[in-house]
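Lay summary. Proteins are chains of building blocks that fold into shapes, and those shapes determine what they do. In this project we predict the shape from the chain. Here is one chain we studied, written as its sequence of building blocks.
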Amino acid sequence: MKQEYTITVYTENHIGLLNRIAIMFSRRKINIESLNTSPSEIEGIHRFTIVINEAEDVVKKLVRQIEKQVEVLKAYYNTNDEIVWQQLALYKMSTDKVIADVKVERLLRKYGARAVVIRKDYTVFETTGHREEIDKLTEVLGSLGLIEFVRSARVAIINASSGFYEKLQEFEAEKPGEEIVENEFLDKQDEVFSM
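And here is the predicted shape, written in a compact code that computers can read:
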């Protein structure tokens, strides 16, 4: 059964990685609902947050495939119940309309919107919330003279996670493999590689 999953990927910041990951989705004909990239809590490590609507077995295979990329350190997948998530939205409306219509002001207050830019010709409001809340406000404002609207990608934090930093420390604490043996022929290049 398909449901919404949030995939969190911790990576080194390499050019072309996003493209390679996106190709994995397109090859499987999986639509990406939302994609956000940002720095993580660890310097030099980036975090991708990808939202898809798919069956769990497909998501599991996809996450394993993503983890095979050299630059990927770890990938997780979670349902909406297992994460805390938000999206940001900006709404542009005529300043005259906002001032004149009490209904608009009440709606903006009800949804916790705040003005970020106020100009003579327009006002931009910002709100955060889940997609359903943002969509509802957009729908209502649409009939009241909404000029422009944009919504960000999802940002999410995993409930059960103590952070990737702790995982990284676990990796570093693990005992390394066999001791590295110096190549006995390294200082005898002329003798070994003669032409």
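What the prediction tells us: The mean pLDDT is 87.
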